[in-house]
Design goal:
The structure holds 2 protein chains of 2 kinds.
Chain A (H helix, E strand, L loop, with lengths): L3 E5 L1 E2 L2 E2 L1 H17 L3 E7 L7 H4 L6 E6 L8 H15 L3 E5 L2 H14 L3 E5 L1 E8 L6 E12 L4 E6 L6 E5 L16 E3 L15 E7 L11 E5 L6 H14 L2 E4 L1 H5 L20 E5 L5 H4 L7 E6 L12 E4 L2 H15 L2
Parallel strand pairs in A: 1-4, 1-6, 4-5, 5-12, 6-11, 7-11, 14-15, 14-16, 16-17, 17-18
Antiparallel strand pairs in A: 2-3, 8-9, 9-10
Helix pairs in contact in A: 3-4, 5-8
Chain B lengths: L3 E5 L2 E3 L22 E3 L1 H16 L4 E7 L5 H10 L3 E5 L9 H15 L4 E5 L10 H9 L2 E13 L2 E8 L2 E8 L2 E5 L11 H7 L15 H6 L6 E3 L19 E6 L9 E4 L2 H13 L5
Parallel strand pairs in B: 1-4, 1-6, 4-5, 5-11, 6-10, 7-10
Antiparallel strand pairs in B: 2-3, 7-8, 8-9
The chains are: A alpha/beta, B alpha/beta.
C-alpha cells in the first residue's frame, strides 16, 4: 500500500532504458517518502529474462506478468493489468516512460482510476501544497514539473486528492544508476487470467517492425543540433558533415522536425530526447524552453545564430553571431587544420 | 457499409508562433495575443475521417469540440472541408478542465450522439502536448483504441486495419469497431476548404456566437443547417462535479516564466580569426579532441 510503482516497458525481452531511468528516480522518491519501490512488467516469455534488468535499480518488489499475447503491447490487456493491480496495491505514485506505449497506456489507466496524470515531466520532486481556496495543506505530494504551453512556461502540477499520482517522463531526462543501497528484491508471478479478461485481446497486431536506433544521440559526447534556421533538409546535410568531422551526433529542434528538415527520432527537447553531451552546438536554434529543457545540462554550449538576441544565447558559453552557411564550413575547416 | 464518425477537434492558441507579448508581466499566458487555430494534428484526423466518408458512401462526419463560444469556428472550419455536422460543448462549468475532466465531457457528449462507429482525433494538441484526452475518452466509453495512427488502411466487416507509428518502427493492427483512433501530424494533410461549402456555411453559427439583434435572424429561421449544435453540461446530462475545474484531479501549483541563469558567454563574430580562436581554445582545453 502507498508505494511507488514504475511500469517497465519491454521490446521482446529487453527492458527499455527509460524504464530503468525511472526506476532510479522512483527509488529516490520511495526512499524520501519512506515507502517501497515496486515495478511491474508484462510480456510474453519474459520470466527469468527481465528480472536482472529491473531488480538492480533498487526494486523492493517486482510483479512479472508473463502470458500469451502480452507482447507486442496492445492497450486493453496492459490497462487491465495495471488497473486491477493498482486496485489491490493502492500505490501513491506511478511512473512510466513518455513513449508511444506509456502515452497510450497512462491515460487509459488514469481514466479508469480517475487519477491525475501529467505528461512529459522534466522534474519530479516531493513537496507540500496548500489549496488556495480551501486552505487545506497536503504534505508529501509529487511535484510534476513540466514545460507547458508550447514550452513558454514551466508548470508545477500536483494531484492532492487522487491516487496514484501518475506521471510520464521522456527518455534521457532521468539518469539510470544501479542502486547501492539495500532493496528487498522480491519477485512475484501473478496469474495473468486473474487480471485480464479474455475480451481484452481484441486488437490483433498483424505486423510489428522495430529497428535498432540508427544513432546514439543520448550517449554522444558532442551533439550538433539544427533548428528552423537551417532552412531545409539540404541545410541539414551541412550538419551531418560537421558531425562526421567532430565524431558527433546530429540532433534537431522541434521546429526543424515539424518543418520536415530532419527525422523525428532526432528531436531534442521536452517532447523528444534529452541529451547531456560535453559539447552542444546549436545551429540556427532560437531556444524555446521546450528545447532548452532537453539540452541545458550540456557541458559547453555553442550557439550559432544570426540573431544576437536569440534566447538560447543566454545559456550559451560561446555565441557566434553569423549565418550557419558561413560559420559551419569554417568550423569544419579550422577543426581539421588544428586537431592532430 | 456506412459509418458514423466523430472527429475530436480543439481550438488552440498558436504556440508555434509565440511573439514577445505572449506572456503577461505577471508570467501568465496572454491568450489574446495568440491567434486561435484548428489544432494541427486534428486536421490530419479530419482528413482520415473524410477519406473514410469518400470510401463508404452514406457515412457521416461530425466535428465535436469543447471551448468558449468562439470555438464554433472549429466546426465551421470542419464544414468547409467536408464535415456534415458538428457539436460545440460550451458551458462555464466545463472551464478549467484538465485532460480527465475534458475526456469526461467529450465521452458524455459522444454517448449522447450515440451509435458512433469511429472517434478520430489528433494525436495531441499543441497547447498541452499531453496526448491524453483520446485514450481517456476511449477508456470512459469502453472503446478499443489505436494511437499514433498514420493511416486507416481499410474497414471491412466492421474491422479496421490501421498502420501506426511505434518507437523506432511501425506496426499494422486490426481492430474491431467501434474504435477510437488518434492520428499523427505526419499523416496525410487535410484537404483544403471547398469554396462551395464555404459559401453554404459561412454564416453557420452557434446561438451563443450571435449578437442579440442578429441581422441574419430570418436567414437562420429559414435554413436549419446554419444553426450549429451547442450543448451545455445539462444538455449532455453531465455531472457538474466531474466537469471543469471541479472534475480535475490535477491542480496547477505554480507557473513560472522561466528566466535562465545567464552564463558569462563569449560573443564572437563569424570571422575566420574568431572561429579559429574558439576551435583552438576548445582543443587546448581538451573539450573537443
Amino acid at each position: 500500500m502507498n508505494n511507488v510503482f514504475v511500469y517497465c516497458e519491454i521490446e521482446g525481452t529487453t527492458v527499455a532504458e527509460v524504464s530503468q531511468e525511472l526506476l532510479t528516480k522512483g527509488r529516490k522518491l520511495a526512499s524520501e517518502l519512506g515507502v517501497e519501490l515496486h515495478a511491474v512488467v508484462a510480456g510474453t516469455g519474459i520470466r527469468r529474462k527481465v528480472e536482472e534488468q529491473i531488480l538492480p535499480y533498487g526494486v523492493d518488489k517486482l510483479f512479472v506478468f508473463d502470458g500469451k499475447d502480452l507482447f507486442p503491447y496492445t492497450s486493453a490487456p496492459h490497462t487491465d493489468i495495471l488497473v486491477n493491480l493498482f486496485k489491490e496495491e493502492k500505490p501513491q505514485i506511478c511512473l512510466m516512460g513518455a513513449t508511444v506505449i506509456g502515452r497510450d497506456l497512462g491515460p487509459r489507466v488514469s481514466s479508469s482510476l480517475t487519477s491525475g496524470l501529467t505528461a512529459d515531466c522534466t522534474q519530479l520532486e516531493i513537496g507540500s501544497y496548500t489549496d488556495a481556496r480551501t486552505k487545506q495543506t497536503y504534505d508529501n505530494l509529487l511535484y510534476q514539473i513540466r514545460p507547458a504551453f508550447g514550452g513558454n512556461i514551466v508548470a508545477t502540477i500536483v494531484n492532492p486528492e487522487h491516487r496514484p499520482q501518475m506521471a510520464t517522463v521522456r527518455s534521457g531526462v532521468m539518469q539510470k544508476a544501479v542502486y547501492e543501497g539495500k532493496a528487498r528484491g522480491e519477485v512475484v508471478y501473478p496469474e495473468v487470467g486473474k487480471y485480464v479478461s479474455p475480451e481484452a485481446y481484441v486488437v490483433k497486431v498483424l505486423d510489428h517492425h522495430v529497428e535498432a536506433s540508427k544513432h546514439n544521440l543520448k550517449g554522444a559526447s558532442i551533439v550538433v543540433s539544427g533548428g528552423y534556421g537551417m532552412g531545409s533538409r539540404e541545410g541539414f546535410d551541412m550538419l551531418f558533415d560537421l558531425a562526421r568531422v567532430l565524431h558527433a551526433e546530429v540532433g534537431a529542434s522541434r521546429a526543424a522536425v515539424d518543418a520536415g528538415f530532419c527525422d523525428h527520432d532526432r528531436q531534442i527537447g521536452q517532447t523528444g530526447v534529452t541529451v547531456h553531451p560535453k559539447v552542444y552546438i546549436a545551429c540556427g536554434i532560437s531556444g524555446q524552453i521546450q528545447h532548452i529543457a532537453g539540452m541545458q545540462e550540456s557541458g559547453i554550449i555553442i550557439s550559432i545564430n544570426s540573431d544576437p538576441d536569440a534566447p538560447i544565447n543566454r545559456i550559451a558559453d560561446y555565441v557566434i553571431v553569423g549565418t550557419v552557411e558561413e560559420v559551419i564550413p569554417k568550423l569544419i575547416k579550422y577543426y581539421k587544420q588544428n586537431s592532430k | 457499409m456506412s459509418l458514423k464518425i466523430v472527429v475530436l477537434a480543439k481550438q488552440v492558441p498558436d504556440t508555434r508562433n509565440v511573439g514577445k507579448d505572449a506572456m503577461t508581466p505577471e508570467g501568465t499566458v496572454n491568450r489574446a495575443a495568440l491567434p486561435a487555430i484548428f489544432n494541427p494534428d486534428d486536421l490530419n484526423a479530419l482528413e482520415q475521417a473524410l477519406r473514410l466518408k469518400d470510401k463508404h458512401p452514406g457515412s457521416t462526419v461530425g466535428v465535436l469540440t469543447m471551448g468558449p463560444p468562439r470555438a464554433g469556428e472549429i466546426i465551421r472550419e470542419g464544414l468547409y472541408r467536408g464535415a456534415d455536422t458538428g457539436w460545440l460543448l460550451t458551458d462555464r462549468l466545463f472551464a478549467g478542465a484538465d485532460t480527465l475532466a475534458t475526456s469526461y465531457a467529450l465521452a458524455t457528449a459522444i454517448r449522447k450522439i450515440g451509435e458512433v462507429d469511429l472517434v478520430i482525433g489528433g494525436r495531441q494538441a499543441i497547447d498541452g502536448d499531453t496526448a491524453q484526452v483520446g485514450p481517456q475518452v476511449a477508456q470512459k466509453l469502453g472503446l478499443n483504441q489505436v494511437t499514433y495512427a498514420e493511416e486507416i488502411l481499410k474497414i471491412e466487416n466492421r474491422v479496421a486495419t490501421i498502420r501506426r507509428h511505434i518507437d523506432g518502427g511501425v506496426e499494422t493492427v486490426e481492430v474491431p469497431l467501434p474504435v477510437l483512433v488518434t492520428v499523427n501530424g505526419s499523416a496525410a494533410p487535410c484537404r483544403p476548404q471547398n469554396v462551395r461549402l464555404v459559401m453554404k456555411y459561412k454564416y453557420a453559427t452557434c446561438p451563443l456566437e450571435r449578437p442579440a439583434d442578429d441581422p441574419r435572424a430570418d436567414l437562420y429561421a429559414e435554413r436549419d443547417y446554419l444553426t450549429l449544435n451547442q450543448w451545455s453540461v445539462a444538455d449532455v446530462g453531465g455531472d457538474p462535479a466531474q466537469c471543469g475545474l471541479a472534475g480535475s484531479p490535477t491542480k496547477v501549483k505554480s507557473v513560472q516564466n522561466i528566466v535562465f541563469q545567464a552564463k558569462e558567454s563569449k560573443t564572437l563574430t563569424a570571422s575566420d580569426a574568431d572561429i579559429e580562436g574558439m576551435i583552438r581554445e576548445l582543443l587546448d582545453e581538451k573539450i573537443i579532441g
